[in-house]
Amino acid sequence: YDGFIDESQLMFYKGSYFVQVFSSGKGLADSRYLYACGSTIDKNIIGERQPPKELSFIDIPGIIHGSERYYVKGLFGNAFFQKGIVAQTTKKGPGAQVFIVIGDSTQAIMENCERYTKHLETSGIDYLYKKEPDGITLMVKDPLHKVMFVKQKGRYLIGTSKIEDEADAWSLINMIKSRVP
């Protein structure tokens, strides 16, 4: 599968479909049952297995390959960052990661950023927001994600969270940004 599986969940994509299966309840969790379920679903989806093009954006040094997770909605459990991809990185920081938020349009991603910053302000969370000619730049001191650095390019937000060194964070963001058309 082009996705992942563990004892209680399975996620993969095929063609234009994203499949997410969770198991719950009492009993022993066993990924074999999820795999069998996923195989049946996979066989019944017509189309080729093409990964989202956004996965190629994060194919850079410093990314832990195989750690990529695709979220259909609620990236970071957040209503402002809808669908996107998160991957772990080798940079210093517990749980250090990069992410790409995939917006429907440039305008939509900018509006989401503005709503997010209003939320940050009312929540008393420190942030720096700049509208620049090449897109939005956002830096957030978030209690859950530590420091987040974010840069917009078109309909995408490219960012990092939990990376201790700011230079490392911007280096990753700029590498990813250079791969975004």
For the sheet with most strands, the description reads:
7 strands, antiparallel
Oligomer: single chain
- How many strands in all? 10
Q: Uncertain runs with pLDDT below 50, 5 residues or more?
A: none
In percent, how much strand structure appears in the residues? 25-35%
Tell me the helix content. Answer: 25-40%
Please give the alpha-carbon distance between the first and last residues. Answer: 27 Å
Order of helices and strands: EEEHHEEEHEEEEH
Rg is: 17 Å
Q: Give the helix tally.
A: 4
Shape: globular
Query: Which structural class best describes the helix and strand composition?
Result: alpha+beta
Strands side by side in the biggest sheet: 4-5-6-10-9-8-7
Q: How confident is the prediction overall: mean pLDDT? A: 87
Describe this structure in words.
This protein is of the alpha+beta class and 181 residues long. The longest helix is centred in the middle third of the chain and has 18 residues, at 106-123. The chain has helices at residues 31-44, 54-57, 106-123, 166-179; strands spanning 3-5, 9-14, 17-22, 69-71, 84-88, 97-102, 127-132, 135-142, 146-153, 156-161.
